[in-house]
From TrEMBL:
Keywords of this entry: Calcium, GTP-binding, Hydrolase, Membrane, Metal-binding, Mitochondrion, Mitochondrion outer membrane, Nucleotide-binding, Repeat, Transmembrane, Transmembrane helix
Organism: Scyliorhinus torazame (Cloudy catshark)
Compartments, record wording: Mitochondrion outer membrane
Catalytic activity: GTP + H2O = GDP + phosphate + H(+); ATP + H2O = ADP + phosphate + H(+); UTP + H2O = UDP + phosphate + H(+)
This protein's name: Miro domain-containing protein
Length: 408
């Protein structure tokens, strides 16, 4: 998650940008306002998403075009403010403001935009009819909100939507042009579905759905809520429910529904719980919790990450799967060990029978080995009984000529 959020307000002169900011801060409408409000920072503990938020005003009478462009480049989200009663300020959204904010940006990197229709207290009719075609034309517009700095309507909502557009962005999840989840989002959600499908029957039954729910949101769903979820899916998708459980298509549909209804934070909470960052890559912290050891523990921990070890075993990180024992030297001194896994290296010149030896450790006779071909691993592992306890022995072969000649 990011450390702070920068919200920039732009729009035609006198639409009420400064008044909106001052109304938010003082919770009353300021009769007199300066041309431009000072930058304000809202501390984390009073914002709904608990993240410090900076709000920046713009005024054409105080700033040059270069200064404006500079502020646009620094912003995480831009609120384009218009006056709901002035058609000319709405026209400028398309002809001036959106091109200025995102005209030179690549499709994938566009800054999210919120349209803000101010002065709704003076309003004759809603501006929504004029605004909807603009929203359909520019995919970076996250949402539109009508508000009034004068009677304090929807002011905190407007800043909340702006914050949400940065923290739970639509762009990585959903393509509004074809109204589909993006492939990387489908891939991530499929992995999450498979991890949550504990019995691997490709259906999330009630127990598995509640396991998933508890893992992501701390609380299980009530029996009624579970039924309601299944009913919504079943009504919209014939193959979304099977044997009274949720199929993968049903699970994907449910997430698409959250997104289409503006509840991206639900899908983002799920994705983040399962280790994804803002670009839907698994985070380094998730895949590689701090740990070092011999053999390829690094990769082993990575596999545990992909396979959802932390979720299934209800652990903080994959390192819980690994036990660190005391040093080998100490074991040898004391003549005893807590280890269950031992590594044994088999060395010998080429052709001395190392591979056959390793395979024989798995109980494979020479005849079986000749049927299998030569394409076998340089490692084998099996259990051995020591003092009537099962221990694991990893046998690895090396034909490193240098090493062997030194030891000959
Ligand atoms: N009725 C009504 N008037 C408002 C509202 N918001 C702002 N105004 C008035 O609109 C005028 C312009 O407000 P500002 O906040 O200065 O507008 P601005 O967009 O910051 O203007 P510039 O600094 O020129 O870019 C002022 O007279 C405000 O009192 C509102 O919600 N309702």
């Amino acid at each position: 998650m990011r450390e702070d959020v920068r919200i920039l307000l732009v729009g035609e002169p006198k639409v009420g940008k400064t008044s909106l900011i001052m109304s938010l801060v003082s919770e009353e409408f300021p009769e007199e306002v300066p041309a431009r409000a000072e930058e304000i920072t809202i501390p984390a503990d009073v914002t709904p998403e608990r993240i410090p938020t900076h709000i920046i005003d713009y005024s054409a009478s105080e700033q040059t075009d270069d200064e404006l462009q500079d502020e646009i480049n620094r912003a995480n989200v831009v609120c384009v403010v218009y006056d709901v009663n002035k058609e000319s300020t709405i026209k400028k959204i398309q002809s001036k403001w959106i091109p200025l904010v995102n005209g030179r940006t690549e499709k994938g990197n566009r800054i999210p935009v919120i349209l803000v229709g101010n002065k709704s207290d003076l309003q004759g009719a809603s501006s929504m009819e004029t605004i909807l075609p603009i929203m359909n034309q520019f995919m970076e517009i996250e949402t539109c909100v009508e508000c009034s700095a004068k009677n304090l309507k929807n002011i905190s909502e407007l800043f909340f939507y702006a914050q949400k557009a940065v923290l739970h962005p639509t762009a990585p999840l959903y393509n509004p042009e074809d109204k589909q989840l993006k492939p990387s989002c489908v891939q991530a959600l499929t992995r999450i579905f498979n991890i949550s499908d504990l019995d691997n029957d490709e259906i999330l039954n009630d127990t598995e759905m509640n396991f998933f729910q508890k893992y992501c949101f701390k609380n299980p769903l009530s029996a009624q809520a579970l039924e309601d979820v299944k009913t919504v899916v079943w009504k919209n998708m014939s193959d979304g429910i099977q044997d009274d459980g949720l199929t993968l298509s049903g699970f994907l549909f449910l997430n698409m529904l959250f997104i289409q209804r503006g509840r991206h934070e639900t899908t983002w909470t799920v994705l983040r719980k399962f280790g994804y960052d803002d670009t839907l890559e698994l985070t380094d912290d998730y895949l590689h919790p701090p740990f070092t050891a011999y053999l390829d523990v690094h990769r082993c921990i990575e596999y545990f990450g992909y396979l959802g070890y932390t979720t299934i075993m209800e652990q903080e990180s994959q390192t819980a799967a690994i036990t660190v024992t005391r040093s080998k030297k100490l074991d040898l001194e004391k003549g005893q060990t807590q280890r269950n896994v031992f590594l044994c290296k088999v060395i010998g010149l080429k052709g001395t029978g190392k591979t056959a030896f390793l395979q024989a450790f798995l109980g494979r006779s020479l005849k079986m080995q000749s049927e299998m071909g030569r394409d076998v691993s340089d490692f084998t592992i099996n259990t051995v009984q020591v003092n009537s306890q099962d221990k694991y022995l990893i046998v690895s072969k090396t034909s490193d000529e240098g090493l062997i000649s030194k030891q000959q």
